[in-house]
Design a protein that fits this description.
The chain is mainly α. It is 64% helix and 0% strand. The protein contains three helices and no strands. Helix 1 crosses helix 3. The longest helix has 12 residues. The two termini are 21 Å apart.
Length: 44
């Protein structure tokens, strides 16, 4: 599931815009970074 989310975050233009990045931005999200952040959000 995290791998799928990482793919979506890195390749889907609308998701990148929602995260505050342009569609041509070089920012790449790793599965581990997403997992860590989801864990932080779900623990609050």
């Amino acid at each position: 599931m995290i791998d799928w989310l990482a793919t979506m975050a890195n390749q889907m233009g609308i998701l990148r815009l929602m995260m505050g990045h342009g569609t041509k931005d070089e920012k790449v999200y790793t599965g581990q970074a997403l997992h860590d952040n989801i864990t932080l959000v779900s623990s609050t």
